[in-house]
Amino acid sequence: MENEMIYTIPLRDITNKSKATKRAPRAVRKVREFLKRHTKSEIVKLDNSINEKIWERSLNKIPARIRVKVVKEEGVAKATLVE
């Protein structure tokens, strides 16, 4: 069985709460945790496009939100960026 969902993940709170040099790594962790919580899946695989979007403007200027499409199959959630 295959489920497909689109999520908008807010990242603005990371900008306000963390040091500039740790924002992008924390954003990647937050995306992974958000998808674990919402897909009820232990294994979350992020596409390289998500990583590139977060790191696009260096590690301290992350986007305020990010839209991802998640396909869940056999307990594994695979996320890609929505353009």
Question: What does this molecule look like?
Answer:
It is a single chain. The chain is an alpha+beta fold and 83 residues long. The chain has a single domain (2-81), classed as Ribosomal protein L31 (Ribosomal Protein L31e, Chain: W), CATH 3.10.440. It has helices at residues 12-17, 23-39, 48-55; strands spanning 2-10, 43-46, 65-73, 76-81. Strands 1-3-4-2 form a 4-stranded mixed sheet. Strand 3 (65-73) and strand 4 (76-81) form a beta hairpin. The longest helix is centred in the middle third of the chain and has 17 residues, at 23-39. The radius of gyration is 13 Å and the shape is elongated. The N and C termini lie far apart (25 Å). The mean pLDDT is 94.
Q: Can you identify the CATH class?
A: Alpha Beta
User: Looking across the biggest beta sheet, what order are the strands in?
Assistant: 1-3-4-2
Gyration radius, rounded: 13 Å
Number of helices: 3
- Overall pLDDT, averaged? 94
Q: What about the largest sheet?
A: 4 strands, mixed
CATH superfamily: Ribosomal protein L31
What is the strand tally? 4
Class derived from helix and strand content: alpha+beta
What is the level-2 CATH architecture name?
A: Roll
CATH topology annotation? Ribosomal Protein L31e, Chain: W
Name the shape in a single word.
Answer: elongated
Order of helices and strands: EHHEHEE
Distance between the termini: 25 Å
Number of domains: 1
Our estimate of the beta-strand percent is 25-35%
Helix content: 25-40%
Low-confidence regions: none
GO molecular function, one term: structural constituent of ribosome
Family: Belongs to the eukaryotic ribosomal protein eL31 family.
Pfam family, one: Ribosomal_L31e
Organism: Methanothermococcus okinawensis (strain DSM 14208 / JCM 11175 / IH1)
